[in-house]
Specification:
The complex is a heterodimer of chains A (about 280) and B (about 300). In chain A, about 80% of the residues lie in helices and about 0% in strands. Chain B is built from 14 helices and two strands. Classes of the chains: A mainly alpha (about 280), B mainly alpha (about 300).
C-alpha cells in the first residue's frame, strides 16, 4: 500500500522537476515567434526574427566557426578519450598512473576561468619562447576544447568498457589476435554506441563553450557563444530567442535520433549475444 | 607484423599511454605552472603584459618573485569577500541541487528499464542544448516585464514588478537549473545498482519504508552523493556566466572577479594570482572527487 503511495509522490516530484527543466526552454521557443520586439509581451505570431537571424552576417560567421571547431573537437576528443579510457580500465598500475588519472578527471570539475586563463598564458609564453607566433584563433580554441571534452568522453567510454565482457577479448587473444587487432575487431564495434554518445557530448560541449573560447580566441575567431553573450549583455532580444530555438531544436533532434539509434543497436547486440549463448 | 618493424614501433602499450598523457601534461598541467609563475610577476605595458621573473645578472640567473599580488589579494577585502561568497553560494546551491535531484534520481531508478531510459534522456537533453541560452531564458523570465512579473501583475497579485533579476535569488535559480542534470546523473548511476533484496530484507525485519531508506538506501548512495555534490560545487565556485547574467553588482563571485581582472583591468598577474588561490581552495574537493570517480571507474574491475 505504502509502495503505491510513495511512487505517486515520486511521479509528482519527477513531473515537477521536468517542468522546471523544460519550462524556460519552452518560453524561449514560444516567444521567438512573438511579433513584439519586447520579447515577453505577446503581440502576435511572426517568424520575422528568424529572417533577421539568418541575415545576420556576424551571427552566421560565428556559427560556422563554432560548428567547425565543435566537429574537430569531437573527433579528436573521441580518439584521445578512448585511448585514455583504455589506459584507465585495462591497464594495471604503471608509474605515473595516479598523475594520469588526476589529469583525466580534473577537467570535469575545474572552473573554466582557471583553465582558460592558464591556457592563454601557455600560448603567450610559447610565442615568447619560441619566437613562433602561436596566433590565437581556431587552433587554440580547438586545443582548449579537446582538453576539456577529452575528460568527459573518457568517463563515458570508461563506464562502457568496464561493463564489457572481458571474455570476448580474451577469447580473441586465445585465438591468436594481437592486442591492436582485438581492439579494432572486437572491442570497437561493441563500444561504438558509447563512442557515438561521447562524440555527441564533446560536440555539444564545444559548441556551447563560452569561457574557454573567450580567453584563447583571436580576432577573427569569434564563436557563437561569444557572439550571443555580447548580444545578450545588451539585453533580451527576440533574435536571440530565434537563435536559441534553432539551436534547441537542432541539438534535441540530433540527440534524440542518436539516442534512439544507440538504444536500438544496444538491444540488437544484446539479442545477438543471447542467441550466440544459446547455440 | 614482422619482427624487424616491431623494433621501430614503441610498444603499443606505451604509445597508448603517452599520447593522451603528453597532451594533458602540455595543455592542462603545464599551463597551471605557467600561471603560477606569472602570478609572481607584475603587470607591465608590454607584450606580453607582464614582467619577467628571471633576470640575468653578470651571467647568473636571478629569480625575482614578487609576492605583492598575493599580498594585494589578502589586503583587499573585495577578494576575500568574493572567495567566501563563492564558497557560500556553491554550498547552498549544491544543497538545493541535492534536495531536488535526489528524489528525481530515486524516482527514475525505481522505474522499469524502458521508461527509465526515456526519463534519463529527458533529464540529459536540456544539458545538450546551450548552457548560455538556458541562462538567457531565465533573464526573460525574471526581468521586470518578464514572464513571472507579467503573470503576477495580470492576475492582480502585485501592483509593481518584483525585483527578481540581478539578485542572489536569481543566481541560485540559475545555478540549480543549470547544474541539476549533473547532480541527477551520478546519483542515478549509483541508485540504480542498489540491490532491491536489501530493502526487502529490511522490511522483513520490520523496518518501515522511511526507516529502510535512511538505514539502507542513503548510506549505500554515499558515493553517488559525493560525486554529484563535487560535480556541482567545484565548478560553481568558479562560475562566471550565471553571476554575470543573473546576478547584481553585489553578487560577488570569484570567477567574475577573475574575468574582470583579466579583461577589464588587463592585469594578468593579479588574475593569475586569483586563479592560483582559487585552485588552492579547490584542490582538496577536487581530490575528493577524483577518488570517488576512480573508485567508480576501477571498482568495476574487481
Amino acid at each position: 500500500m505504502s509502495q503505491a503511495r510513495s511512487s505517486k509522490w515520486g511521479w509528482l516530484f519527477l513531473a515537477l522537476g521536468f517542468f522546471f527543466l523544460y519550462a524556460p526552454m519552452l518560453s524561449l521557443i514560444i516567444y521567438s515567434f512573438n511579433e513584439n520586439r519586447l520579447v515577453t509581451v505577446w503581440s502576435g505570431f511572426s517568424t520575422k526574427w528568424y529572417g533577421e537571424l539568418f541575415q545576420d552576417e556576424q551571427m552566421l560567421n560565428a556559427a560556422w566557426v563554432s560548428f567547425r571547431i565543435a566537429f574537430y573537437t569531437a573527433c579528436a576528443s573521441v580518439v584521445l578519450g578512448t585511448m585514455a579510457a583504455m589506459v584507465m580500465t585495462r591497464m594495471r598500475k604503471f608509474p605515473g598512473k595516479t598523475l594520469f588519472g588526476g589529469m583525466i578527471t580534473a577537467p570535469l570539475v575545474m572552473p573554466e576561468v582557471i583553465t582558460g586563463l592558464s591556457l592563454l598564458l601557455l600560448f603567450v609564453s610559447l610565442s615568447a619562447w619560441t619566437g613562433l607566433d602561436f596566433a590565437r584563433g581556431m587552433l587554440t580554441i580547438w586545443i582548449a576544447h579537446v582538453t576539456l571534452c577529452m575528460a568527459f568522453v573518457t568517463v563515458v567510454i570508461s563506464s562502457r568498457l568496464a561493463e564489457l565482457d572481458r571474455s570476448l577479448e580474451e577469447a580473441a587473444m586465445d585465438l591468436g589476435a594481437n592486442r591492436i587487432k582485438v581492439f579494432f575487431v572486437i572491442t570497437l564495434p561493441i563500444i561504438a554506441p558509447a563512442l557515438m554518445s561521447g562524440w555527441l557530448l564533446a560536440f555539444t560541449l564545444s559548441l556551447d563553450d563560452l569561457v574557454l573560447a573567450s580567453f584563447v580566441s583571436g580576432p577573427s575567431s569569434t564563436t557563437l557563444p561569444m557572439q550571443v553573450f555580447s548580444s545578450a549583455r545588451m539585453g533580451v532580444s527576440p533574435k536571440i530567442n530565434a537563435l536559441a530555438t534553432t539551436l534547441i531544436v537542432t541539438v534535441s533532434t540530433i540527440g534524440v535520433i542518436g539516442w534512439y539509434f544507440m538504444q536500438r543497436a544496444d538491444r540488437r547486440r544484446q539479442q545477438e549475444m543471447q542467441l550466440a549463448a544459446k547455440q | 607484423m614482422s619482427a624487424r618493424w616491431r623494433r621501430f614501433i614503441p610498444g603499443s602499450r606505451w604509445g597508448l599511454i603517452l599520447i593522451p598523457f603528453l597532451w594533458l601534461l602540455l595543455f592542462f598541467a603545464i599551463p597551471f605552472l605557467i600561471a603560477l609563475k606569472i602570478s609572481f610577476a607584475k603587470a607591465a605595458i608590454a607584450m606580453p603584459p607582464y614582467t619577467d621573473i628571471l633576470y640575468w645578472v653578470d651571467g647568473f640567473p636571478v629569480l625575482k618573485l614578487r609576492g605583492e599580488n598575493y599580498l594585494y589579494l589578502l589586503g583587499d577585502s573585495l577578494y576575500i569577500k568574493a572567495y567566501l561568497s563563492s564558497l557560500k553560494i556553491a554550498v547552498i546551491a549544491t544543497t538545493f541541487c541535492l534536495l531536488i535531484g535526489y528524489p528525481m534520481a530515486y524516482a527514475i531508478s525505481q522505474m522499469n528499464p524502458s521508461t527509465r531510459n526515456i526519463a534519463l534522456l529527458l533529464v540529459i537533453l536540456p544539458s545538450w542544448t546551450s548552457f548560455l541560452i538556458r541562462i538567457y531564458a531565465w533573464v526573460g523570465i525574471l526581468k521586470p516585464n518578464g514572464l513571472i512579473n507579467n503573470f503576477l501583475m495580470d492576475i492582480g497579485l502585485i501592483d509593481a514588478p518584483l525585483k527578481l533579476l540581478h539578485t542572489p535569488i536569481a543566481v541560485y535559480i540559475g545555478i540549480v537549473y543549470a547544474y541539476l542534470p549533473f547532480m541527477v546523473l551520478p546519483l542515478y548511476t549509483n541508485l540504480v545498482k542498489h540491490d532491491h533484496r536489501l530493502l526487502e530484507a529490511a522490511s522483513d525485519l520490520g523496518a518501515k519504508p522511511w526507516q529502510a531508506f535512511l538505514k539502507v538506501t542513503l548510506p549505500l548512495s554515499k558515493a553517488g552523493i559525493i560525486a554529484g555534490c563535487m560535480l556541482v560545487a567545484i565548478p560553481v565556485v568558479g562560475e562566471f556566466v550565471i553571476p554575470e547574467m543573473l546576478g547584481g553588482p553585489d553578487t560577488l563571485m570569484i570567477g567574475r572577479v577573475l574575468w574582470q581582472e583579466f579583461f577589464n583591468n588587463r592585469d594578468w598577474p593579479v588574475a593569475s594570482a586569483v586563479a592560483m588561490v582559487m585552485l588552492a581552495l579547490l584542490i582538496v574537493p577536487i581530490m575528493i572527487f577524483h577518488r570517488a570517480q576512480s573508485k567508480e571507474m576501477e571498482g568495476r574491475l574487481s
